[in-house]
Design a protein that fits this description.
alpha/beta; five-stranded parallel β-sheet
Amino acid sequence: MRKRLEAVFYAFPIQLIILHLRSHQLIIGVWLGILLLLSGAVGRKLGFLYLFLDPEYLGMVNFWSFFFVGFAFGGLLMTWNLTTYLLMAHYFPFLASLSRPFTKFCINNILLPLAFFIYYMAAVIHFQSKFEELPFEDIFQNCLGLFFGATSLIVLNLVYFFFTNKDISSYNRPAQSPPHLTKSIAPGRRGVDLDEIKQDRKRWRVETYLTEAFLPRVVRSVAHYDSRLLMNIFRQNHLNALIIQLLSMLLLMGLGQMMDYAAFRIPAAASIFILGSVILAIIGALIYWFDQWWVTAFILLMIIVNFITSFELLTFRNKAYGMNYETAPAVYDYKNLQKICHPDTVAADQAATIAILEKWLQKARQYPSHKPKMVLMCVSGGGLRSATWSVKVAQTADSLLQGALLDQTVLITGASGGMIGMAYLREVLLRQKLGAPMQLYHPKHVHYISKDLLNSVAFTIVSNDLFLPWAKFQTGGFRYRKDRGYILERQLNENTLGILDKTIGDYRAPEAEALVPMIYVTPMVVNDARRLVISPQGVSFMMNTPAGIQNPHITEIDAVDFSRLFAHQNASELRFLTALRMNATYPYVLPNVYLPATPGIEAMDAGLRDNYGVLSATRFIQVFQDWIRENTSGVVLLQISSSQKTGAIPPSDRQGAIKTLFNPIGIAGQIISLQEFEQDAGIGFLYDLLGEDFFQVIRFIYRPSQANRMAASISFHLTQGERENVLNAIYNPENQSGLRQLQQLLQ
């Protein structure tokens, strides 16, 4: 029994696992990181697991979508084998005496990837049968695509190595020549003496290995071989491994230049596997060439990259498409903001907005009430979940009220996905009013706005943004670089059939005539946390409280009128899709937008300051409260939120000393809760200001259905099951009650 256990323990596959655990934890960490995403242990709320379990390609989940994911997985597996072969082959000199040494290494190095693949396949079957409720034929076809994709890439690599890698039989050598006594250092590794290893003084103990037929074979001694001969074999094998990795990188960069073509936008899960391959290759190269100095080399490399990219020539900042970066930049300092927020300017903007409100009033009076209710719609961030939920709620409520909801809505504010959804629906409404054959309540609009955006972004990150994004495009007379920000706008434009391909200025007249509600897009300035208020109208009154405008020393300016600040940089020509993207710039997934200002400033997701749009709505009501009191019968603040306001309170007991150190940092993770508390205080202020009879709040909150209590993910990707779950939330009792309450108020 003991000998059998020893035979198993000293088998090549087992010893490779042990060597990985001892020396290459960072490389194993790549597999672990992807496994955490796949299992949902990390990023469940963001929906990372669904990218693996329900991948889309060209809008479909089928054999080909899984084939491309499997193909990318095969690439990760082969990169794993190539990298570990480069780093570990010198421990096992017997490989050089075998025919097809790399192939045999791959077979014996399969345990970890095989365990991952089996788990992946089981997870796909479980998810698609239980949550997507797909028939057996579809599940089998998808799994077949995953399997064939992986095997296709593996076979292609092995065929290449079969025809290029040399083994011991390919070299002429003297028979039974004595061991060469000159010190021979294994290529790429410092201090590794191949003679000592092969003569069993430092060799990693292995007694058996698996052949191509998966049969065990006893390892034979190679002490009688010339060290130079063994080194030649390893070097030639290593060279081929490096060539394959280089060709893979070049192929990936080439695919990145094809991002404009939908057929090249592979599933996001495939992009994650490719990213894992890139990370593996980089780590392996650093360890291979620098050995124990690789950490120092990595740090120096990061410092050099940071220094080089600080120069304008190699700076690849994302820009606001349509704006002029060639003219003198806008001055962004407090003194200039005060000039923009001058009382005379504010008064002019207020008068222009009141003119819009007067036209809205004429339109709203067609409904039964002599003095109509004014509706301000606040939609939350939350990716496609929020976009889908906002469109569904607005469509349902407006159809029940026979158009009264959107006609009586003055302003739409919010963040991220919710604003994308409502901006799209507003454009449909505008075209319908202008006579286009648009059906506002058609289900296809929910379908369009919920179509995948993440695959294109993820693919562009790994194929373009990680390298050098040289490709350019032209819009508004200016040229900009293509990156993940560009591809998100392109994909959103394709999903919505191009109807949002407009500039901010294109909405000036429709809003001024009160044909459609005004929209305030409010991304945040990273540099000082102020909000940018993007609107075709003058909105200087949104920059400070009314008291702060009259007495600048009372309160500080906390927002910026985008159009006035960047008037000389073509603010009105800003692409509307870019404004929506700025408003939905989730950190790292999308690039911050660099604006033409001095000093340079960047804009990112509105959700970091106002995820629900309540701050903008509150200030608007505060500014125009006198007009509202005189001309309306009350204000309805309509909140459409894709997340629950209350949740379970995480305990702080039974925490160790190390975890306790991070508790103060944990408050950063409660940014949305902090916003809720602040905005509820603002809503309470409005109740006191206007009175409970004059001011009402109606909330439509997405909660997962009882049949599937797992909430839809907050990302730019929704599975079919998640989409149905979001749409069915309209039938929840509290949301049905909200619809009835809204009917009573507006009819």
